Amino acid sequence: MSRAVCRLFFLLCLGSTFSTIRGIFMDKLSRKKLCADEDCVYAISLARAEDDYNAPDCRFINIRKGQLIYVYSKLVKEKKAGEFWSGSVYNEQYEDQMGTVGYFPRTLVTEQHVYREANKTIPTKVIDFFCD
What we know:
disordered N terminus, SH3 domain, Otoraplin, Otoraplin_SH3, signal, SH3_domain
């Protein structure tokens, strides 16, 4: 095949791949985050919500006072970025929300138990702020 045909085929395949993706890439809240490991899959800590929080958009999670949250990463401070952590709620009462990871204000939670030190600085990616 000629190069032009190969390029066209590649672009058609790429286009069909992206057409199956549903969601929105939102603005990055920070260029870096702190994690316990390179992939940010291990929980850093367990925190308890001190107040309710209603998510302003799909990058964030709703939390309720008293709810437990597994913290997976902490955004590195850039303007307001350091004010947000990412995590997932843990509470059988909110079973439908368990496993959904999103951002929340760090000022609304108190760390109850630290599992691992967040000592790895990792660049954020656009997928970190993807909304499904």
